[in-house]
Amino acid sequence: MLDWCSCSFGLFSGNNILRCPSRCISSFSCSDTNISYSSGTYAPFLAALAPGVNIIRMLLLGLGLVKNEAMVKSMSRSGDRRELLKGPLYYATTITFATSVLWRSSPIAIAVICNLCAGDGIADVLGRRLGKEKLPYNPNKSYAGSIAMAVGGFLASLGYMHYFHTFGFIEETWNMALGFLVVSIAATLVESHPISTELDDNLTIPLTSFLVGSLIF
């Protein structure tokens, strides 16, 4: 499973059609492996190995220390290796942080991963296909994409809340569900702002989810 996570990240992260659904699948697959780990001290770090390896891969490729044009093209939109030092690096770092530090007993980890993977993923897909009506404060974002992100991130968070509850890692409550809704809306608002285009939504979404989640949970 760790090899699958590592490979899927590289194979699909640059494809405009498959990039978002595939990154959701691969990231959720990585999260699923958390269930099989023990409660030992080193379990979170073992589970974070696959996304952690991708951090190193992004740095080596992005800095030009390792040459692999095919991989660079598959993982970037422009074909510029330096692009890997932004979105793909932020993405791998977020998954690694959520797994190794927050682990499986934290609702913040659920909010961070679900808004980044499911929320932003479905927003990109539906935004491209249905996003004719643009937001008044950001012509690069659409109502369809933003609504899809809020709903997708929220529903995925609820799904993972229930999933982790069945294994006894967290308590499933209405207050937690409401908290996930607030975090998803906050992450969507920040993602729709022009600043996310300038910085990178793979940075602003998890950062917002983490900060708002820290205040709520």
Q: Level of helix content?
A: over 70%
Mean pLDDT: 83
- Using DSSP, what is the number of strands? 2
Structural class by SSE content: mainly alpha
The major pleated sheet works out as: 2 strands, antiparallel
What is the overall number of helices? 11
The radius of gyration is 17 Å
Biggest sheet, spatial arrangement of strands: 1-2
| Low-confidence spans | 1-23
Order of helical and strand elements: HHHHHHHEEHHHH
The first-to-last residue Cα distance is 30 Å
Shape: flat
Instruction: Name the beta content range.
Output: under 5%
**How many structural units, i.e. domains?**
2
Give structural attributes.
single chain; flat; disordered N terminus; mainly alpha; two-stranded antiparallel ribbon; 2 domains; 217 residues; 2 strands
Topology:
Blueprint: H1 2-12, H2 19-36, H3 43-47, H4 49-62, H5 69-75, H6 87-102, H7 107-130, E1 134-135, E2 138-142, H8 143-166, H9 174-192, H10 194-199, H11 201-216
Antiparallel strand pairs: 1-2
Produce a short descriptive summary:
The protein has 217 residues and is mostly helical. The protein has 11 helices and 2 strands, in the order αααααααββαααα. A hairpin with a 2-residue loop joins β1 and β2.
Describe this entry's structure for a reader.
The protein is mainly alpha-helical and 217 residues long. The protein folds into two domains: 1-103, no CATH class; 106-217, no CATH class. It has eleven helices and two strands. The protein has helices at residues 2-12, 19-36, 43-47, 49-62, 69-75, 87-102, 107-130, 143-166, 174-192, 194-199, 201-216, and strands at residues 134-135, 138-142. It has a two-stranded antiparallel ribbon. Helix 8 (143-166) packs antiparallel against helix 9 (174-192). The radius of gyration is 17 Å and the shape is flat. The two termini are 30 Å apart.
